[in-house]
Design goal:
Layout (H helix, E strand, L loop, with lengths): L1 H25 L9 H17 L19 E8 L6 H8 L6 E7 L28 H16 L3 E8 L3 E2 L3 H9 L13 E4 L7 H5 L24 E3 H9 L4 H4 L11 H13 L4 E3 L3 E3 L19 H8 L9 E3 L6 H6 L1 H5 L3
Parallel strand pairs: 1-2, 1-3, 5-7, 8-9
Antiparallel strand pairs: 3-6, 4-9
Helix pairs in contact: 2-4, 4-7
GO molecular function: glycosyltransferase activity
Main location: membrane
GO cellular component, one term: membrane
Length: 348
């Protein structure tokens, strides 16, 4: 009896180092999980948005007591800190004649100073977000669903962060996205501006971030894509995103290798590449400088870098359209940006 207890105690003591070694590989990161109540809340929101969209302009006619209603751009701000550039965006939206809506998802654990003006009362019911976790996908989907449900005239959905700035006037952005196609009967032809890449050097590491073969069978490696976190989706593709359940079951799984885990940069490009690759441009309209990135973060512009020359440079693109937005700017860039807002940024 004594020897049996001794053997069991010794085996338990021997297993402790192994438990500490392999537990991170077995157990999901504690803070990266999406709770069941949050998931059920989101599913209910997605169902309501899907049902409401059955009678949206993209499916036929609309009766709002408006003659030839014009489509709107829904600006989706995803943040976990103050919207430092709210004054610049406020000037951007000036005189836009009700052609936009604003929705803000903020991490409820972050202490924000709520902006006023056009941003007042534009916060949606937010949930906790965390880098290198699927919570950022959930937040973007929540924004899309809320915007779809809120206004049937929302036809493009631009996801931006608190570090993003506009590079052109609102009128320029609107003309770029819609041109002269104001009739909703053509809205299903609108393309989404989302980066979709299949030849990144880190693609294999990103694919196996949750473990070997975990993404199968729904997402084979040759269908896996990566791209920018920030995009402009058409209404058609926003609905594709909130209706998805199949791929979400894979991408919501926590990562074991957090160094290669950027779920929001994987899920949207992969889903839309699978569902409608020809309906996407495969490039983004948000400029990001990765030349001296650190820790997965792009270059952050400081006040002494802000100039008319910088704005002109950030607009330059190899695609058929100029970049419309740019990131990442430190909050203290607001003053020099406001000084050139009217003479440079919004002067097209």
């Amino acid at each position: 009896m004594f020897s049996t207890q001794f053997v069991l105690s010794f085996a338990l003591l021997l297993s402790l180092p192994l438990l500490f070694l392999f537990a991170p590989r077995i157990l999901p990161p504690k803070d990266a999980q999406i709770t069941l109540p949050d998931e059920l809340d989101d599913l209910a929101l997605f169902r309501r948005a899907t049902l409401a969209s059955l009678h949206s302009p993209s499916t036929g006619t609309i009766r709002l007591g408006i003659t030839n209603p014009k489509p709107k751009i829904a600006f989706l701000f995803l943040t976990n800190s103050d919207l430092s550039f709210a004054p610049l965006w406020e000037r951007f939206f000036n005189h836009s004649h009700n052609l936009y809506n604003i929705y803000i998802h903020a991490d409820p654990s972050a202490k924000l100073n709520p902006p006023g003006g056009v941003f007042a009362n534009r916060f949606i019911a937010g949930k906790k977000t965390e880098r290198a976790s699927p919570t950022l996908i959930s937040a973007a989907r929540r924004l899309l669903a809320t915007a779809l449900l809120d206004d049937p005239l929302n036809s493009y959905f631009a996801l931006v962060s608190q570090h993003c700035i506009p590079l052109h006037s609102f009128n320029y952005v609107y003309r770029t996205l819609f041109g002269s196609r104001f009739s909703f009967k053509f809205s299903h032809h609108f393309k989404s501006f989302i980066e979709i890449l299949s030849d990144e050097p880190t693609l294999q590491d990103r694919y196996t971030a949750r473990g070997e073969n975990v993404m199968l069978p729904e997402v084979p490696f040759d269908r896996f894509r990566v791209g920018s976190q920030f995009f402009i989706l058409s209404r058609k593709h926003a609905l594709v995103v909130i209706k998805d359940r199949r791929l979400w079951r894979k991408f919501r799984l926590p990562c074991l290798n957090t160094d290669s885990c950027y779920p929001e940069e994987h899920y949207f490009p992969t889903l839309l590449s699978m569902e409608d690759p020809n309906g996407c441009t495969h490039y983004t309209l948000t400029r990001v400088n990765w030349t001296d990135s650190t820790g997965g973060h792009p270059h952050t512009y400081r006040p002494d870098e802000v100039s008319p020359e910088l704005i002109h440079t950030l607009r330059e693109s190899n695609s058929s359209s100029s970049y419309l937005f740019a990131r990442k700017f430190s909050p203290d860039c607001l003053k020099p940006l406001m000084e050139i807002a009217d003479t440079v940024i919004f002067r097209d």
